[in-house]
Design goal:
Layout (H helix, E strand, L loop, with lengths): L8 H19 L9 E6 L2 E4 L15 E4 L14 H10 L5 E5 L2 H8 L21 E2 L7 H10 L5 E4 L3 E6 L2 H24 L7 H11 L11
Parallel strand pairs: 5-6
Antiparallel strand pairs: 1-2, 1-4, 2-3, 4-7, 6-7
Helix pairs in contact: 2-4, 3-5
């Protein structure tokens, strides 16, 4: 199946970026097999990975354009987790991309139903002093979507009990970066728990770091 001939080079670039990000998830060790899924905001809906397709076989044409009413015109069905992708993008104007995966350390804490406290200042990337762990619901259900939205309130990422994690961002690059940071944070916490009793930073320190993060990263110098 060819990529829809919309004459839109931006759409084609996004489709390719999604397939590349999917393969990168496995290469980076934040996902295994076909269990993860990715979406990017696009026009009247989102572009989302198809259900159950091996990432090595995935082509730009296989990415499904899903409308906000849940409809689509494609030979493939969208990811089984399309509901929370759609609902997060619909409820959060600040979110341009959603990455869902089952990395080992994130998923281990999710299996235990544990949130991640402020054991490192990088938790500010989550938007607050904790990474919440939402409750359990079967995958692909409206109940899981509601749980994800609640866990993401005032946050950019979360864990889902006995399931995995969700990372969001204004674009796909930022969402992928956050997915890697979240797994790193969970790995650090797991090791720290084995070493001793982790020191948790106070909420006001994380609030200050959240503010610092608003101007973090490459930007043009305004000085002459």
């Amino acid at each position: 199946m060819a990529v829809p001939d919309t004459g839109d080079s931006e759409e084609l670039a996004l489709r390719h970026a999604i397939t590349e990000a999917c393969r990168a998830m496995n290469a980076l060790g934040i996902n295994q097999g076909t269990s993860g899924n990715i979406s990017v905001r696009w026009r009247d809906g989102l572009l989302i990975t198809p259900s159950g397709m091996p990432y090595g076989d995935m082509k730009a044409a296989d990415i499904v354009h899903l409308r906000m009413d849940g409809s689509y015109n494609h030979r493939l069905v969208p990811s089984s987790e399309w509901r929370f992708h759609r609902d997060i993008i619909g409820a959060r104007p600040d979110v341009g991309a959603v990455v869902h995966a089952h990395p080992v350390y994130c998923t281990a804490f999710a299996i235990c139903g544990l949130e991640i406290p402020a054991i490192h200042y990088m938790i500010a990337a989550a938007g607050g002093p904790t990474v919440r762990c939402g409750g359990y619901a079967p995958y692909g259900t409206p109940e899981l979507s509601d749980i994800a939205l609640a866990a993401l309130r005032d946050r950019t990422c979360c864990l889902l009990a006995n399931h995995g994690m969700i990372a969001t961002g204004p674009d796909l690059g930022k969402a992928m970066w956050l997915a890697v940071e979240l797994e790193t944070l969970c790995r650090q916490y797991a090791v720290a728990l084995q070493v001793g009793r982790p020191n948790v930073l106070p909420d006001d320190e994380i609030a200050r770091t959240v503010e610092r993060f608003r101007t973090y990263g490459p930007r043009r110098d305004s000085a002459p």
